[in-house]
Amino acid sequence: MVMTGARQVLIGGLPASAAAGIRPGWKNCSVSDLYDDHAQALRGTVKRPKGAFRWGRDNLGIGLYQARLARQEFHPDLETSPALNVVESGKHLLVACERGDLLAEVIASNLAFACGASFAVFPELAKSDRADWLEEIYALGQGGDVTERFSDLARRARSHLGQIDFTRYKGILFVTAGFPWGIAVPEVTNSHMYRYPDFGRAVIEGLRASQSSSRSARTALLIDPQTVEGSEIPAINRALLKNGTLTRIVRGQAATQTRVQYLLDLLPHDIIVLSSHAGDAPGERITYEYPDADGRGRRLVVDQALGIGYDASNGMFRVTEFHRFHSLDGVDWRDTAGKEVLPVGTAITTWNAMGGQMERRNFIVDRQPIPRVTGSMAIQLHDGVWLFASHGFAPESAPLFVNNSCWSWHELGSPRFQCNK
């Protein structure tokens, strides 16, 4: 972050150990939990505010953006905030944030201000509706009247976004809780960022990386199992080489699950590009019956997908398991209200403590093949489907990951696929 060239840095609300770790390297840095201390540190660095901007404690992103544009001091001391959902600024970009997380709204507002963009908020989609709508998208892969079903979903999504006129802007960045709202606005170039869990860090990393063109992309990993026609990998490789980037291409038979996983886990890269097919993997629906740690008889139904890769260096197979709980004691796992009534208790911890497949097999009472394990999102590599399951990238590696695989945006861009630096 020192590369940003910030004139003044303010640190507050952090434990002393965290502040001590962040502080080194900054010329001017104020560490305090008191507002007056930070106000004093900013004297001579920023202009004094032109009065107070009064707002409520909700809809903070909109209020904060208006205050910054007006160069006024933000005071959230009203009982309620005005029902405003758009702040106009630049037409080159609109940052549109899904409500429901005030911290995310504030971060999105700050991002819009930094980019000179317009800012908007729209209603949060209920968690159950989000799950249903995403399932409708995945179900399109099973065929049928795809065009009509997709058009209907896009219409519902557009209706949910409200009266925002998206066509006024050249581009849109949706800050979303999980649904790809861009399908509702196909006429405008758009992209997405998750509002949780690493939205703030992702914004900071992006701002930092944009400050120095000399850093650029030093190393790149290009993965091309040659499962699709017209792969863009050669063109990307030429562009990166022209840029002075050291590229490693894993192509065809070399693009195995084991090799790709090792390269991601052990070697640092600035850019990772993957060109292949993706989709939820087939698997089994397995029913277990067992007593939990409290002595209560349980019936747990689990959907399981497997990824099996061969490691030629030691002659062993690398097996990756993906589990999705389907139901417990007859209650659907997605039924939040039903699970609140159901005593989940130690049912899951007991199942986990059983160990692997060999240890659990004595408790299996039924198993059926299923065409798709929801959420597994496997990527087709040369030797089979690859279930991404890294705990983290190589040390000091926070790469830009470009993945053109179909259906992959939601699961592979979700919180289970995060890079902690």
UniProtKB/TrEMBL annotation:
This is Uncharacterized protein. It comes from the Bacteria.
